[in-house]
AraC family transcriptional regulator (Paenibacillus baimaensis), 780 residues
Amino acid sequence: MDRIWKRWFGIASKYKYNSRFFRKSLVMMLLVASIPGLIIGVSIYWLASDNMEGELQRLHQNQIKQRAENIDDQLAYLELTFSHWAFDSKFDEKLKTLDIAYNFEQVQDLYRTLLVMEGAHPLLERVELFLDKPRPLIFNKLQYTYITEPASLQPYESLLKKERSVFWTNAYPEAPTKDSVPNSLSLVNKIPGGSTEPFGAIVATINQENLIKMLKTLTPYNEGETILLTGDGSWKLSSGGIGKFTDIDIALQQEYLKHSSKSESFLFEHNKTTYSVSYGQFSRLGTTWVYISAAPLTSITAPVVLVSKWILFISLSGLLLALLMSWFVSHRMYSPVERLVRLLSGDKGTELSDEFDLFEKQWNHLSKESETMRSKLTEQLPLLREGFFLQLVQGYFYSLQENDLRERMKHHGWKTDNRQFVALMFQLTGFSNLQGRFSSGDEDLVTFTAANIIEELTGTQYEQVEVINFHNFSVGLLLSFPHDHPARWLEDDISAFCQEATQTINRILKMQVTVSISKSTYQVKQIPHLFEEARQALVYRDLLDDNQIIKTELLSKSSTLMESTFPFTLEKEIVHAIRNGLENEAVELIEQFMKELSASGSTELAVQQGMLQLLGSIRYAVLQSGMNPVQLFGGVNLFEQLAQLKEPEEMLKWFQYKLVAVFVQELISRQDFHLKQMVEKVILHLRENYMTMLSLDSCAELYGTSPYTLSRAFKHISGVNFIDYLTDIRIDNAKGLLRETEIKINEVAERVGYQHTYFNRIFKKYEGITPSQFRELNRS
């Protein structure tokens, strides 16, 4: 206490500060605040005790009802999860033919599935699979066991005879172990799900210890009992433990039978103790479950009495404590002011008339620093201004009103009253032709350079101007002119500037420039529309000219911009060349196709639409060839890629490498396989019909191809041409007849498909001797 007072007086003397009035006011405030608390405590104790007891009892009953609904929801979730298992593909009709010895992977999969099922819900203790076919057996997560005894099999088969496909039972047979619980509750689901002739069942045994823990939530106090039983009384469970039913459990069950309603709360006296009893029902898969919860009334109302006494005690103590703590609280209340003084003065012993003198000096110091920060902020204004105009032209301020936009532009140094605005779009082309000057990925650098060139040119010519870098070879320009500026002067002035900017960019960057000029407007809110019109007008650029200036107001007046003639004949030739695998010829035709499009309608829009139409035709040819375009081109949106290309050279390269080459390569690979099959069929046909009148034309017609295609494929696959292969077959068969038979030479020739005179000549050509000499030589 003395140390606190010494510290207090030290601070007061240091800063010449007197806090007596502050302490007296604080003590009076604390006393006034404590007296109402004392009055309220007494009122609560005498007037609200009875009402609180009744309200607590009602809240207890509502709490029991809510927790019972929670248990009902958990059981319903377990049933829903369990019912889905029967429709798993692992439990379909294939299990009827399951061979345990050979289908090892399927058996392992069943083990894993049962293990996953067992861990799917905390109430599950064990999940087993019973199969009646092909042999009765029981699966669990560790092993399987065949059921050979009829007496052991009967309880399992009785499960399949139940009418419902999913049901609860306490008659499921269990293997006797030291931990096994008699009369356990199980959930049975016949498999396969939805079948009228089930051949097995999934059985999930409930962990009764976890179920008891859940039942104990219906008795939130340490005292009381909860019973869960079926409607017919065939199964019941007490929160006291497995197989433990006390006198209170039996008495509660007998008292419940005296009531007829489905849900009710009542007071029940047993062994001189009054219980608050609540009971209700669950509907579980066609059966009725009943819960009965009983809690001693004294455990419910005991907190009310205790709280009331504590309120009275605390209220009395608070009055005394307030008198003692007022001395300490005054110091605590002053501590923020003390910390602020130390923070501002640096605790260097500054002599001040009072604390507020220090605050005044520090305020002046902070004002100077604020001015410094303001100057730094001024340096950042160009970046903020650039961000504002970029959002403005892209339409992000669509929700703002005209006056709000004008005010924002004024904040960035723009005059908006009695002004008209014009938008210009600069599009750079010819980047693909600058090989060696720029590399791939320098698009942003090139666009940034062009934006700087335009900004330097406009800085000395116009009063209000904003250059906007859209990247990807696009630069926007927003100009502002007085309201009374003549339209003819405005048009000439902008045209002259565009010519100068175009020539400068041509000289420095060696790239072509297309400029689109929008109409003028007097509304700031129309500026995004001006830029959109100017951006759309760029597609009307003439591909045959290098530098162009397009005025959007003239586009609607011109009717020839969109006129073009589509080269349908070339389109058919291109598709035909691609189908025949002629890649180079197809690329040359595509280049000629682009030239004809440019000659008839040389605007970028006309060429781009024509190329998109050609892409659609080639894609249709892919479908006709039996290929899936999505798989062939890797799921790429070809139309979107093509629409992003602006220059004819880029379009031609894209068609060559991204479309034609991919299609032709896949087509050739498929044709090789088809031709191999066709040649194998022709060879088989020659071996079976060599004695008939065969020719290349007849075989080609038989297998639906041209003689040229068949001849080339036959030579490529078999290594010899068609006629030599047929001749070899006939000569080999003739040699066999000459060696092994005595038939005449004329008949041998007929049997191998030759006339007699031609047979002698061709035989001697291949063997070097006549047929007669061959026969005599083999006989000798």
Observations:
- The chain has four domains: 59-298, 381-554, 568-667, 673-779.
- The mean pLDDT is 76.
